[in-house]
Task: structure prediction
Amino acid sequence: MVLEELQALLQAVAAGTATPEQGLERLRHLPFEDLGFAQVDHHRALRQGQPEVIFGQGKTVEQIGRIMEAMVARGSNVLVTRLEEVRAVELLAVFPRSFYHAEARCLTLETTPKQEQGRGPILIVAAGTSDLPVASEALVTARFMGNQAELLCDVGVAGIHRLLSRMELLRSATVLIVVAGMEGALPSVVGGLVDRPVIAVPTSVGYGASFGGIAALLGMLNTCASGVTVVNIDNGFGAACAASLMNRI
Result:
């Protein structure tokens, strides 16, 4: 339940078009619903402006499906992250209105139209094509949360002229999410070029000495560009959540 739905429900009860008992039934599962294996947080949209998101990794198709059913029954839009295609196919058969974003490994189901909430566009900048799965997760999440979002790909520091040729696009964004593996230098470069928040996302892309993204993470944490924020390795979802909150201020 989102804020607008709650206001409409209270107004209906006050106007007499809905009974208190009907209002109570609608609110019965706030703030959460116990499914036994999961406590579905129906109250999160009221607290944070966005419904609970399902982390698909480690959950069975049946578990994900039951959580989705509970959310859809309450009118929530659904985002499932870290979902392999083979499990997504099974869920698509049960929820034919849902859509699977293969590159992002995300599934979305829109039950109510999303309202644009951001002050301006969020730009996701990917250093290389190998970083696209994480960048795509950030893109899908940012759009799911009601933001205008765009992706700029393959502009890493090995060919810095590719990035510099897109300065107008960089400066048009309200918040930037910069995704990079290897040595993780791109967020420092972008952070030195723009006067707006930059969220750095290290990826696990790279050869042995990258240590599964730790080298990029440490490089980003040690950036000399002021104001760069860093999230966890491969956490495109978390970066998009932070960017969405920044975009509402």
